[in-house]
Specification:
Length: about 250
């Protein structure tokens, strides 16, 4: 049996197990299984590997995309540049880290942003997913401004978001867990009244399908998108990595 799975905490909301289980059934891969491994602490990571020595690959989600770097044998150059890993391949006792969030996010922007989009982007959150989003946008030539609840150099707080800031950032990407099931009544403290029909709101959360963040934007005429397509795209890239022993190495 080939074993794969997802680590993070909490992860009951995740669609990853359903996606891979349906994929395995559809493709007749009765020798594969994908399980959820909720880890209350990153220190539970190595014991998990000892408990399941047959694990071939793992996806990594909140809050361990950065913390897991300390446990890896090697890190793909793009993942190292991003500073976050969401996919691990286990090969010959080595833990190899990749970031498939970046290509998944980049492909999911196709058809969402208009050709020649040149406005700045606000990225809400500074975690591992935020790093991948920033990497992609800056590679595309879109300048980014980070927003966090905690003050830090070079990062805005929500109190800094006035009308001029919102008007100057027509793409807003929500990368935190706010609004994720079961806490669907939460949302970043964005001044939604400053939004207009010129804004594009992208929420990496996909469960529920429309978060309060996206609902607030849609009510003001914004173009909105959730992270479900990105989830499927990054998952397929992870599957490609797990099944290509020499992938990019």
């Amino acid at each position: 049996m080939r074993r794969f799975g997802l680590i993070g905490f909490p992860i009951a909301h995740s669609f990853s197990q359903r996606h891979f289980t349906e994929k395995f059934e559809r493709e007749g891969r009765s020798d594969c299984r994908y399980d959820l491994y909720p880890l209350p602490s990153i220190q539970d990571f190595l014991p998990l590997l000892e408990q399941h020595p047959d694990l071939e690959g793992l996806n990594v989600t909140i809050p361990y995309k950065v913390q897991v770097l300390d446990y890896l044998s090697e890190c793909h150059p793009a993942a190292a540049a991003i500073g976050a890993v969401n996919t691990i391949a286990v090969r010959e006792g080595k833990l190899l880290g990749f970031n498939t969030d970046a290509p998944g996010f980049e492909r999911s922007l196709e058809g969402f942003l208009p050709a020649g989009f040149s406005s700045r982007a606000l990225i809400l959150g500074t975690g591992g997913a935020s790093r991948a989003v920033r990497f992609v946008l800056e590679t595309m030539g879109i300048a980014c401004t980070l927003v966090s609840r905690t003050p830090s150099p070079g990062v805005l707080t929500y109190n800094d978001l006035d009308a001029s800031v919102i008007d100057g950032h027509l793409l807003i990407v929500q990368t935190t867990s706010l609004g994720m099931s079961p806490k669907v009544d939460t949302t970043p403290d964005l001044p939604f009244s400053f939004l207009s029909g010129n804004h594009y709101l992208y929420d990496l959360v996909y469960n529920p399908g429309e978060t309060l963040f996206l609902t607030q934007g849609r009510r003001r005429g914004c173009k909105v998108k959730n992270g479900l397509e990105m989830l499927y795209l990054q998952a397929e890239k992870a599957w490609e990595i797990w099944n290509t022993p020499s992938y990019i190495w």
